[in-house]
Specification:
The protein is of the alpha+beta class. The chain is 32% helix and 29% strand. It is globular and about 50 Å long. It starts with 13 loop residues before the first strand and ends with a helix. Its EC number is 2.7.7.56.
């Protein structure tokens, strides 16, 4: 039995509320169970120097956790004077995941920055950030299409991410914190809406796993991404 009482292949409740901030070109509040992330998209008519003049657009991301997003207060990274290694790794993951679903030629020489701020954490914050980040990106690009700034849709496919792992010897979908902290194997699966893989992060946490178990986790992840992609499309319809 999972601590939450969910079935092995059952996700937490997912909700996506759009246009939650006034100034961002695209925004949403995504909730995956008790993990809540505010995602905003900012459009700029410039690109980083390393691609200037290439005709290609750029999508990047920043990620952070609010001090009381966790059970005890976290010190703000700004107060420490630098970002932690986990933060840098996660925001790079979000950026490259979202770029995998973008036609950068169709985007043109402009940059969209996705900011993901974790309001409340209960496992799977990077997955929620990627999934919500795509929604914010979709909304920002809708505005470009509406104004005629771009003539073809740069988004190839939804991009979504879900965690899977082996908890108490059983493959489970969408780990919350009690499961994540005790899972023998933990993984994050990032995919396009058609289930094409973008990235898989898997690690054994005091246990090992077989090829058959890996295949079971992949099957669970595909189910999860399918549900998330449907929620993304419904939110942005």
């Amino acid at each position: 039995m999972r601590p939450s009482g969910r079935q092995l292949n059952e996700m937490r409740a997912v909700s996506i509320e759009t246009n939650v901030t006034k100034h961002a070109e695209g925004s949403c509040l995504i909730k995956m169970g008790d993990t809540h992330v505010l995602c905003t998209a900012t459009l700029e008519e410039r690109v980083p120097p390393f691609i200037k003049g290439s005709g290609l657009g750029w999508v990047t991301a920043e990620y952070g956790m609010l001090p009381r997003s966790t059970s005890s207060r976290m010190r703000r990274e700004a107060a420490a004077g630098k970002q932690g290694g986990r933060t840098v790794e996660i925001q790079r993951l979000i950026g490259r995941a979202l770029r995998a679903g973008v036609d950068r030629v169709a985007l043109g020489e402009r940059q969209i920055t996705i900011d993901c701020d974790v309001i409340q954490a209960d496992g799977g914050t990077r997955c929620a950030s990627i999934t919500g980040g795509w929604v914010a990106l979709r909304l920002a690009l809708n505005k470009l299409l509406k104004t005629g700034a771009i003539t073809s849709d740069p988004l190839i496919s939804p991009v979504a991410a879900i965690s899977c792992g082996i908890y108490a010897g059983q493959p489970v979908l969408d780990l919350d914190y009690p499961e994540d902290s005790e899972a023998g194997v933990d993984g994050n699966f990032i995919m396009l809406g058609n289930k094409t893989l973008i990235e898989v992060q898997m690690s054994a946490e005091g246990s090992v796993f077989s090829r058959d178990q890996m295949n079971e986790l992949m099957d669970l992840a595909e189910k999860g991404v399918e549900e998330l992609a449907a929620a993304q499309l419904e939110a942005t319809a």
